[in-house]
Structures are given as C-alpha cells and as structure tokens.
C-alpha cells in the first residue's frame, strides 16, 4: 500500500519591526519581552563600527543589564559557537540579542539554545554530522538585529556552522531557534562594503529562487506524527508569496545596493527581501545550491575574500551558494518549467513569455556579473580533483536535497559542479 501523502503545511514567522532608526527601540522590545539581563552577541567589525554599543545603550536605557560578547566568528565553527555558549551559561542571562550578519545571529541562537538546554554543540547538530537532538522546550527570548541584507537569519530556525575536522558545513535546525522578535534597520548597512552586499544579496536571491521552485509540500510522504514534520517542507502556496516578492526585490535593488552605500532605499529593500526570503525558505527549504555551498565553504580554507576581515580565509556564504545556482537550476528546470519561468520573470522584472532551461540561469549570471561575484567554483580554489569530495559533502545535506524539485544523486551533483567551474 502506498504511503499517504502530506496534506498539511505550516508557516511560522518572526515578528518584524522595519524602518530606518528602528534599532533604537531594542531596549523597548526587550523590556516588553520581560528581559532583565541580556547577552548581546556581535562580531569585532560591528563592535568597531559602533553599532553594537548603540544597541547596548538603548537596552541599558530601559534599565536592563547588558553584557557584550564581541567574538562571534564570521562563518562560525563548532568551537566558536561553544565559546559563546560557555559565556552564555556562565552569565545566567534571561534574554539574548544578536547584532550583525548571519554569523552573529546564528551564534546568538546557539548561545540561547545551550544556555537554556545545556548540551554539547554536536548533540544538536543535524545528522549525519551530529546527533540531531531536539530541544526539549522553548528558548529564552532572542532579539535579532541584522546589519547585512542576506542570510535572513532573523526569520529562520537554523544556525549554520563549519566543522573543520570533517571539512564540511552543516547546521542546527529546530523551530525553537527562530528569534522571538526582529528589528530590521536599513541605516545599519551604510558601513558595509560592496563585496559584503554582493555576497549577502546573492544569498537572498538563492534563498528565494530555491524555495520558489522547491518540490511541492504535498509530494512528500505524510509524517507519522506532527513532531516528525520537517522544518523544510517543500514549496507551499504561502511560502511562494514570500519567496516571489524577495526575488522581485533582488532583481530591482541588488545592483543599486552594491553600487552606492548611501542608497538606503535599495539597501533597505534588500534587507526586507532577506527577511521575506527567510520566511519563505524557512518553510519551503533550500536544496541543491545550498547543499553544495557547505562543502565549497568547508572543504578548503584558502580563499581570502575581498572586502571582508582578513583574519582568516573563508568563502562568504552567498558566493559559495551562487556559483552553482545556474547549473543547478538548469538541471531542475525539467521538473517544473512554469515555476522556473516565473522565477526568471520576477528576477528580470519583465515578462518572460516562454522559458528554456537557460532562461533562469542566464538571468542569474547577468546579476552575478553586475555585482562582481566570483565566476565559479574554480575562482574559489576548486578543480576537477576536488569534485568527488564536494559531492560527498553535499550528500551529507539530505535535509536540503530532500526538497529539490528533481532528485540529485552523486552523478548529477558532480555534473552540476563541473558545469560551475566557470559561469562566464
């Protein structure tokens, strides 16, 4: 007897406060949430820019004690998460604040998780890399204040980390990791260089495109119990709404946001797009480009990205994702040509009457070139001899590959990598 198919989908979204200057209300939000002692997680660059201390002053003005942890690592590792978690446990905080890019927000999520439900980091990491333990209950309040326009971490239930000894990136994923409140303030992006905006914005576009064309939720087998329903469910009628608007904003505003740091309208809309895409992919999921991005970022640590801190080599997340996206969407086109046509139309901002397998990839490549993305995986340090290891790393991301609109095994993933050595 065939297994029953899923008929239920869910949508959970972080309450969002948006607008220039909104970060000044951080203290008010924490007071509303009943926090009396907060841990503020940020990275050295955001601290140096003065952003984290302005947020801290807003918090303290409401009579809330606040300690700053400014050692969040760009592209976190299990060790860097553990350092923050130890600080959180020792500090006995009743609330958390993340201020920065996705790395800082993810670090705040994990600090909150371990302080609330103590365990080793790897106990919570998704299988097969970690144990995949589920948190036994909700976490303490978490206020997320992004300073980039990319990961959408303020709206998601995922924290991403690098596991250097296994040469792979993976994550911790559970609905309880979703922040309690987000504040999205476009003014916080003024100090960001064009390279950071480029990588972060291309991550938004990939989040939106992958979730928009993901396998429909009702093609999955129904779970045995609600507890077994995966966070990444496949595309739903509601996730499509969020993902479509994020694609539209990416096409309209990313080029402008990269070119002019004072174009607060463009940078604001890209921040909003990041949050919208976070809601969309937080329900539908991402798949082939993201599954390949983790080994691309984790297998080698040699690439020194321009415009980023030079304290350690790494591949910025958005660039690690975008380089395989043209080949990935060329491969998935056959699963749903109409969805791929509509994604290209949204990104291009003009009607696309008919589409071929190269229509969406060509739109992505045009955007990549205009915002000065790396041209492919070769520019990031990979050659033919690395293909097998990249595929092996991608195959560890089964929670992502499960929502791909077309099944991708080792041979298909290898073909996508080879097509992605150079996109132009």
Salient structural properties:
2 domains; alpha/beta; 424 residues; 8 strands; 45% helix; Dehydroquinate synthase-like, alpha domain; globular; Rossmann fold; two-stranded antiparallel ribbon
Structure characterization notes:
This protein is α/β, with parallel strands linked by helices. The protein folds into two domains: 22-184, Rossmann fold (3-Layer(aba) Sandwich); 194-419, Dehydroquinate synthase-like - alpha domain (Dehydroquinate synthase-like, alpha domain), CATH 1.20.1090.10. Helices cover 45% and strands 9% of the residues. The protein has helices spanning 26-32, 44-48, 51-60, 78-91, 102-116, 121-124, 194-212, 237-259, 264-284, 288-298, 317-322, 325-332, 337-348, 359-370, 387-395, 398-401, 410-419; strands at 16-18, 37-41, 65-69, 95-100, 142-146, 158-163, 168-173, 181-184. The strands form two sheets. The protein has a six-stranded parallel β-sheet, sandwiched between helices. A two-stranded antiparallel ribbon has the order 6-7. A hairpin with a 4-residue loop joins strand 6 and strand 7 (168-173). Helix 13 runs parallel beside helix 14 (359-370). The longest helix has 23 residues, at 237-259. The chain is globular, with a radius of gyration of 20 Å.
Question: Could you give the topology of this structure?
Answer:
Layout: E1 16-18, H1 26-32, E2 37-41, H2 44-48, H3 51-60, E3 65-69, H4 78-91, E4 95-100, H5 102-116, H6 121-124, E5 142-146, E6 158-163, E7 168-173, E8 181-184, H7 194-212, H8 237-259, H9 264-284, H10 288-298, H11 317-322, H12 325-332, H13 337-348, H14 359-370, H15 387-395, H16 398-401, H17 410-419
Parallel strand pairs: 1-8, 2-3, 2-4, 4-5, 5-8
Antiparallel strand pairs: 6-7
Helix pairs in contact: 1-3, 4-5, 7-8, 7-9, 8-9, 8-13, 10-15, 12-14, 13-14, 15-17
